[in-house]
Design goal:
Helix content is about 45%, strand content about 25%. The model has no long low-confidence stretch (mean pLDDT about 90). A five-stranded antiparallel β-sheet has the order 1-15-3-11-12. It has a four-stranded antiparallel β-sheet with strand order 7-8-4-10. Helix 1 packs antiparallel against helix 8 and helix 1 packs antiparallel against helix 9. The protein is built from nine helices and 19 strands. The chain starts with 5 loop residues before the first helix and ends with a helix. It is of the alpha+beta class.
């Protein structure tokens, strides 16, 4: 009789003892992992759809996209949001806002390394706010001296700086110490003075300043210059002058010039592009749900979430919202319908007609309180809450099932180890008996 390998035999027999359980647990684990992955896909698609909805459902954005058209470019630009009302306006740009910029009266011959006083303060006032630079703190390299460069740095990095920028400028062989307001307008005029320094040249430099750029406010007229409505602003952007329109001026017209015409109207192409983003996000969600909840066929495999009621309820609830009426109209009446596959389709001609005939009603239908977008968001909310949403609950339940399988697999490993040890002892003993028998048989053969 030939001897056997106890280790190999013990491994085989112990594996046979646990194999059915291993197969069952692995199938269960694979199923739960597939469900977890599938739920993640559905949740991602649902969040993307919700993002598309919410981007068109804010105080300044809606289903309708407006645009401004100017009769002449170069003097101002206009940006619009969903609140802009269709109409024509006349704008005259009289003056562009500028920032205050001054050169201090530093004596000739100063350089970036010229030493400045290390006692006293430099005091600034701008737009009604004040701040001071303590000259004893200007030295930042610890050499006991303070220089012009260090002064500029101390001003610019001062934690209380209200909008003053200091710069050293070199021109015609001379170095000039410049101060500039970071904001435009008369209110941002810089006032500066030095005190307690004990050095007249330094104090005089901040008394005898020269304006390089005089601060001024922007001025426009709604209508002709002189007879229209005059508007003044410290910034070059006028917000809220016309509902939903921001006007940013960048060049002044000449006195007597004709006002520039600004037309506000719905931008059909931009609106359709925005609507198509909404449609694509919904259709992607439907495709994802349909694929993952498919019962399978000869040509396709069964989805990981087949028969899952929670996932199917998402599509059902959103479908019900999209088939509802808002402002007394259905989406089909304005060109948006659900086809046999449950996907959204756009009839561009019908939607364009609805936009042209009554854009305000169309906007209210989609964006009015409690209407389409609000209703869709409310339908999605229970699923997407991070801590208590249905997706979160479902994933937590699946993770608990996986954890229980891990526990069973750990117990199964212990069962394998015990069986292996038992079989190893048995086969080792058997192998020893077989060896002895072979030796005895060899004696008789002699």
């Amino acid at each position: 009789m030939s001897s056997m390998d106890p280790i190999s035999m013990a491994t085989q027999f112990a594996t046979l003892d646990v194999k059915p359980f291993q197969t069952r647990y692995q199938l269960q684990a694979d199923k739960y992992q597939s469900q977890l992955k599938a739920l993640g896909e559905v949740e991602t698609a649902l969040r993307e759809f919700r993002t598309a909805v919410n981007k068109m459902n804010t105080a300044t954005s809606g289903i309708i996209t407006n645009a401004a058209t100017l009769s002449e470019e170069g003097f101002f630009t206009a940006s619009t949001n969903a609140n802009a009302l269709t109409g024509n306006y006349q704008i005259f740009v009289e003056q562009v806002a500028t920032a205050h910029q001054m050169s201090t009266g530093m004596p000739a011959g100063i350089t970036s390394t010229t030493e400045i006083p290390t006692t006293g303060t430099l005091d600034f006032t701008i737009d009604g706010e004040t701040f001071s630079v303590d000259l004893s703190t200007v030295d930042n390299d610890g050499d006991g001296k303070a220089t012009m460069t260090e002064l500029a740095t101390a001003i610019n990095t001062n934690s209380n700086n209200k909008g003053v920028n200091a710069t050293l400028v070199r021109a015609d062989g001379e170095t000039h110490f410049m101060l500039s307001s970071t904001e435009t307008g008369v209110a941002n005029t810089i006032q500066v003075s030095a005190s307690g320094t004990g050095q007249a040249w330094f104090d005089d430099a901040f008394t005898n300043t020269t304006d390089i750029s005089t601060p001024q406010d922007a001025v426009i007229w709604l209508g002709p210059q002189g007879s229209g409505l005059k508007l003044t602003n410290g910034s070059n952007t006028f917000s809220g002058v016309i509902d939903g329109v921001d006007i940013t001026v960048n060049k002044a017209q000449s006195a007597g010039d004709t006002p520039i015409s600004m037309g506000i109207a719905a931008d059909s192409e931009a609106t359709k592009e925005q609507l198509n983003t909404f449609i694509d996000a919904y259709n992607n969600l439907v495709s994802t749900i349909d694929r993952l909840t498919s019962t399978g066929s000869e040509d396709s495999k069964r989805g990981a979430l087949a028969g899952d009621p929670t996932t199917r309820s998402i599509e059902s609830q959103l479908n019900n919202v999209l088939r509802s009426q808002f402002e007394g109209k259905s989406l089909m009446e304005v060109g948006l319908s659900i086809n046999r596959e449950g996907k959204l389709e756009l009839d561009e001609k019908r939607f364009t007609a609805a936009q042209q005939n009554n854009g305000a009603a169309l906007e209210a239908m989609f964006n009015g309180d409690g209407n389409l977008f609000d209703s869709l968001d409310s339908a999605m909310e229970p699923y997407l809450k991070f801590s208590s949403g249905l997706f979160s609950s479902r994933k937590d339940a699946i993770k608990q099932n996986l954890s229980r399988i891990d526990t069973k697999q750990e117990a199964l490993q212990r069962k394998y180890d015990m069986a292996y040890d038992r079989y190893l002892a048995q086969f080792t003993q058997m192998n020893q008996i077989m060896t002895q028998m072979n030796q005895t048989s060899g004696l008789f053969a002699m």
